[in-house]
Design brief:
The protein has helices spanning about 10-20, 35-45, 60-70, 110-130, 140-150, 170-180, 195-220, 225-255, 260-270, 290-300, and strands spanning about 25-30, 50, 80, 85-95, 100-105, 155-160, 165-170, 180-190, 275, 280-285. By secondary structure, it is α+β, with helices and mostly antiparallel strands. It has three domains: about 10-100 and about 185-190, no CATH class; about 110-175, no CATH class; about 205-300, no CATH class. Strands 1-2-8-5-4-3 form a six-stranded mixed sheet, sandwiched between helices. Strands 6-7 form a two-stranded antiparallel ribbon. Strands 9-10 form a two-stranded antiparallel ribbon. A hairpin with a 5-residue loop joins strand 9 and strand 10. Helix 7 packs antiparallel against helix 8 (about 225-255). The longest helix is centred in the last third of the chain and has 27 residues, at about 195-220. The two termini are about 40 Å apart. About 15% of the residues are buried.
């Protein structure tokens, strides 16, 4: 959908398209761009199953994040997801006239990665601004916006002797850092914390998968001579996404998604070998303990 069209009419039309295909049992998984009070009220009133992260600009969401900021790291909230520690706590947030259930997640590894990336971007932006010499024909505000981009909200600036004098906004930076590694998923339906997170991240897999397909296709035309070949290639890529989603569903139902990512599971299983002896006899190599556990629950 176009990013600028996120109102209730878009949501209603999408639901009509789904129902027109004969699909009855489904869950809407949306990104933050579709989060709004009217959309949430429409979905809850219609009894729709959904998963969506809330906008952090909403007052009730800010209050919820503030309350759970220190309590989320309580050892009693500790879980394991994809073989990594993850703190999880249930949360209820008032959206319009409804109290919507959800889960708060705190990933310390993700927090560290976000901090490093964020501080590096801020440092590079500040250094770039300080190197600029403001010419008479330049508009300082336009120059600042062009260089700072999304980091502009964290920087105070003025021009002195044709140079930028910049200073980071401590409160703005602190507020951003305090949210790192923490995120909320709201839902309607019956979802455990693991299923809720796994389903939401599966949305990213599909979107990134299509991005990969697009990137691959960008370099393919020089080598593809027929439309049929291009269509075939696209079809194979699409099938691979379907297979991946199916595997993720099986892993989630078997309780494997808390221990393995798709990549980790495939890496573990690819160690399996079938040996073909000179007389044609096939011998399957011995399975590791992990492989036996995976096959036992996946094939149950």
């Amino acid at each position: 959908m176009p990013g600028s069209i996120v109102d209730v009419s878009t949501l209603k039309n999408t639901i009509k398209k789904i129902q027109a295909c004969g699909i009855q049992d489904y869950t809407l998984i949306m990104d933050r761009g579709f989060f709004s009070t009217p959309n949430l009220e429409e979905m809850v009133n219609s009894g729709l199953s959904f998963i969506i992260p809330p906008s952090t600009t909403m007052k009730t969401v800010k209050e919820a994040i503030s309350i759970i900021h220190s309590s989320i790291s309580n050892p009693n909230n500790l879980n394991i997801y994809h073989d990594e520690p993850l703190f999880v706590s249930p949360v209820t947030i008032n959206i319009g006239e409804f109290a919507v259930e959800g889960y708060t997640y705190y990933d310390q590894k993700r927090e560290q990665q976000e901090r490093q990336s964020f501080y590096r971007r801020l440092y590079d932006t500040v250094e770039a601004l300080r190197k600029i010499e403001i010419r008479s024909w330049m508009n300082p505000l336009d120059v600042f916006k062009e260089i700072a981009k999304k980091n502009a909200q964290y920087i105070d600036w003025k021009v002195n002797n044709n140079r930028f004098e910049v200073e980071l906004k401590k409160n703005a930076v602190s507020q951003r850092v305090n949210r790192m590694g923490r995120f909320i998923l709201l839902y309607n339906g019956k979802f455990g914390w693991e299923e809720c997170l796994s389903l939401y991240r599966s949305k990213d897999v599909v979107e990134k998968g299509f991005d990969v397909m697009k990137n691959e296709l960008d370099v393919m035309p020089a080598n593809v001579r027929k439309d049929s070949t291009m269509r075939g290639y696209l079809f194979i890529c699409f099938l691979s996404l379907i297979l991946r989603m199916r595997l993720m569903k099986l892993m989630r139902e078997a309780g494997l998604s808390s221990k393995y990512s798709v990549e980790a599971l495939v890496t573990e299983l690819e160690k399996n070998r079938v040996m073909i002896l000179p007389d044609g006899t096939q011998i399957v190599t011995e399975q590791t303990k992990r492989q036996k556990e995976i096959f036992k629950v996946l094939c149950a």
